[in-house]
Amino acid sequence: MAPYSRQAPLQIKCVATRRSQKALTFVIEDNKIHVGAYKISTMCALTDGLTVYLSVKIGSDPEFKEGVSYVVKDYVLSTKFGRACLFVNQKTTISRRIPLVFPEEVENMANQALLPPSACMTGEEEDIFKCTSYMSLLGIVEKVQVVRMTRGQIPILDLSLRCGSKLHEVSLWRENALEELYAGDKVEISHLRGNIRPNGTGKFDSSNYTTVKIVERQILKADLEIIAVSEDSGNMITLVDSELEHYIVPSQFYSGNTDDLFQQLPIKIRVTHINNRVLSVEPLGPTVSAETMDPIETTKSVDPGDTAEFVDPSKNSESLEK
Questions:
Q1: Is CATH 2.40.50.140 the right assignment for the domain spanning 4-114?
Q2: 96 with 64: CB under 8 angstroms?
Q3: Residue 204's closest CA among 216, 189, 214, 215?
Q4: Class of domain 220-293
């Protein structure tokens, strides 16, 4: 088949449709990464019983209706993108016809053209990085890095995922990198690709089909007496309580410098947190005034689903393009 060719009238069935919303650009506002603009398109999986065709249309309305059969004339077929795609134009005639009936395996192939299968793995397979298909992993997040931007202005979030006895490195790209994840979260991540790095170690990367599902998360409250404070190079504040537990405070809670805060210690606060990562702060007791709590602001809270924080890629030893 030529890259573009006109064909005889085609009798097809639209087996399934799928709406795709892909980020075109990412912007940084208030030290946060957000999606700047989206591109919405709708894909249809079509089959004539022998071949699966994809029809892609910009916008939310599909070119064909799911479950309906058609006769299509004066269309254009293209293999430019690596698989058979059907395009329509002003000369194309689309007529509904009596239903076409195909075997289940034929329709399954059409469905998989829209959403490829993702094999559920335990993560403990010795040859897991030899697998060339999409994989799904269920595990406990053991460590989460701060999301960073590549030189191509694409966000990436690196994390360590505990799957049984194995600890895997996972990189989430684009919109998936904006997932707010915490150490201790039990997550299911689909459609991962295994890759071997130049140093010989394996890691997983997200794909255009990847979804991240938080299976289990525990949000706790604690009353604390803060006796020590520090600030790292990423402007994250660490509060240390009288039991020597460390709590990480996002930068949006903080204005000023840690020297001023240190002069006001000890202070008593109530925090809502996930594995010692603070979501909200409020003062405790009549002895704690608003002035005492400044520069830690008590009127703000963080939604666990908020977008991720930004770190300058020049401060990170590893920068990947995708």
A1: yes
A2: no
A3: 189
A4: mainly beta
Tell me the CATH architecture of domain 119-216: Beta Barrel (2.40)
Question: CA separation (Å) from 49 to 78, 79, 109, 305?
Answer: 18, 18, 10, 43
174, 34 in Cβ contact below 8 A?
no
Judge if pTM exceeds 0.70.
yes
Integer Rg of the chain from CA: 26
Sign of torsion over alpha carbons 137, 278, 237, 151:
positive
The Cα 292–Cα 178 span in angstroms is 33
Q: Are 65 and 14 in contact (CB under 8 A)?
A: yes
- Six token digits for residue 85: 């795609």
Q: What is the pLDDT of residues 43-72, one digit of tens each?
A: 999 999 999 999 999 998 999 999 999 999
Query: Nearest CA to 253 among 269, 242, 275, 241?
Result: 269
- Per-domain residue ranges for the chain? 4-114, 119-216, 220-293
